[in-house]
Design a protein that fits this description.
The chain is an alpha/beta fold and 182 residues long. Helix content is 38%, strand content 23%. The radius of gyration is 16 Å and the shape is globular.
Length: 182
């Protein structure tokens, strides 16, 4: 799939997440401002593991504060913070690790059944020139990608508490800056 067609990456990711109990993602970097998942899409997800090579606390903080200022997008921060608190979302960093391309494995009760390989981008319209290509694979490809994600995960460092702290501060800051209605 590419950035021009439908379904696009955003559509397919959401549909696969809806039917999954486990999601395992390995991406070079996460841009919180483009992450567009809603509670219904991750309702069944019991474990969502995000592995990143690059996580910049200052950028994450700025993006979280920016999102909190937008009432339409603010629930994203609350959803992610809540998932972190419940243990359903885990985030690890592997700054010395590497993989190509980015990938996400979707698993159900019978194990890994689908993998998205390629550029991971939720934002519409796609803001860059040129194609953003992603492939969807099943069966053995999903099992292989799940095995490789587990290997990377074991060597990575837990950054979930730091991410939770940044998201919580952004939410508190937004609450304090809202005018009181009393």
């Amino acid at each position: 799939m590419d950035e021009r067609g439908r379904p696009d990456f955003r559509d397919v990711f959401g549909a696969l997440a809806r039917r999954s109990t486990d999601v395992a993602t390995a991406v070079t970097r996460v841009r919180l401002s483009t992450l567009d998942l809603d509670a219904a899409e991750v309702e069944r997800v019991e474990s969502f593991r995000v592995l990143v090579t690059e996580l910049n606390a200052l950028t994450l903080d700025a993006e979280a504060r920016l999102i909190q200022a937008d009432p339409r997008r603010a629930p994203r921060v609350e959803l992610l913070r809540g998932m972190l608190e419940s243990g359903r979302l885990e985030v690890r960093s592997a700054p010395l690790g590497g993989w190509s391309p980015d990938f996400t494995v979707f698993s159900g009760t019978l194990g890994p059944d689908a993998v998205l390989l390629g550029f991971h981008w939720f934002e519409r319209p796609y803001p860059h020139r040129g194609p953003a290509l992603t492939g969807l694979h099943f069966g053995d490809s999903a099992r292989l990608a799940a095995r490789r994600h587990r290997e990377l995960w074991e060597r990575a460092h837990d950054v979930g508490p730091a991410v939770w702290s940044i998201l919580s501060k952004a939410e508190r800051g937004a609450r304090l800056s809202r005018p009181s209605t009393g």
